[in-house]
Amino acid sequence: MDSTRHIARHRLFASGILALSLIAAGSSSFAAEQDEQLPLGPTVTRTDTGPTGYEVTFRYEAPAYVDSVQIYGEWFFSQPDRITTLGGGEHRIPALWQPGDVPNAPWKLLEMNQGDDGIWELKVPLPSGTFSYSFTHECPPIAVDSCQRHADPANPGMAAELPAYSSQSLSQVFVPENPNYPTYDNAYQAPRPADEMGTFVHETYDTHYSLAPKGAHPLSIYLPRGYDPDRAEPYPVMYLSHGFGGNDTDWFTQGAAPYILENAIDEGAAEPSVIVATNFNGLGVDSLVLSTSYGHDMVENVIPFVEDHFNVSTEAKDRAFAGLSLGGARAIELLTKYPGTFEYYGLWSAGKLSSTFTCAERENIAALRGTIHVGTGLQDHLFFISESSPARAESLRNIGVDVAEFNLPGIHSWDIWRAELNDFIRNVAFKKDL
Which first-to-last residue range defines the signal peptide (predicted)? Predict the structure, then answer.
């Protein structure tokens, strides 16, 4: 499977995932009458006009004392070749989207308008994909990072009722592709009806490594549609890690992991699997650097907890681990220091400066029988990741292990990581007869 692909962009609870499906399905319906009063939350409308053939109307009810409302959205754009530095690029507003554009951070605020009914509203044309957004109150554009962000109360997502260490301040909306205005082929992340989804479970496990919360730590788990706790053949299990500043629910909200998995299963491209998303925050004072606390906790506590409470395989050939950014560095930590724990790895925009390995690390890596999936955005200039990631892939090939490389235009953002997860699920994880 050794391959390198630099591709172009082509055109908690058990009820939590259910609620998200219903919201997404409802908000993605066509608006039959443009002059009808729209509900609160996002409404996706097919316009058949440029630049993308779709627009999203956001309607938000703010407290009466608020004098202005802004929407924070991950939807500013640039041609890839114009992004030559970290934070560089064209940063065009959605109305100026062009074919070939990629999302271009830093994200900025757009002012909303208050109607006669007191509701704040804004229409935004968007290309296909999953977009995260939130609202701010009376926030100056230059202070976007210091203003409090409010998730959409009409579209709260599955993490709304969780404790602060697992909660989200962002909501999501999915936009389909209009064939008359080709944007990106993102159907793989499209929401599915509630009755075609599985179950989201939020758990805590005991661990002495956890300092916040003390002695216990959160896990977010997705059980696939039709999950059978008594099935004779246990399920494969995929462990995912968030990046810096995130938490265990990132992959199930911004990452759209349940939809990506279920769409792949429905198309016969993947088998039903359990997804476990970890939280590396608060695992000791050195948990933001490459320490051993995360790896020790994974092997000593997380994996045993999951295998004790869910019908998952206890064999390494049925375990995968993948992470984004600093979570990709966690994947490297597990790959190099805990041989025989996982047979499939995903190193995505991995936040580790070195692309080489010590003799001991090379020996541990060489024991891998499965596949390492390596990928990044080709314009990811954070810590020179767009350069270090391909170099790391080459170092791994030189060790003699199977490497699948998947790079695509873009920066250090969720559009890249959703695509990496999709490729990993469909083409790498659990595909070998080990």
Answer: 1-31
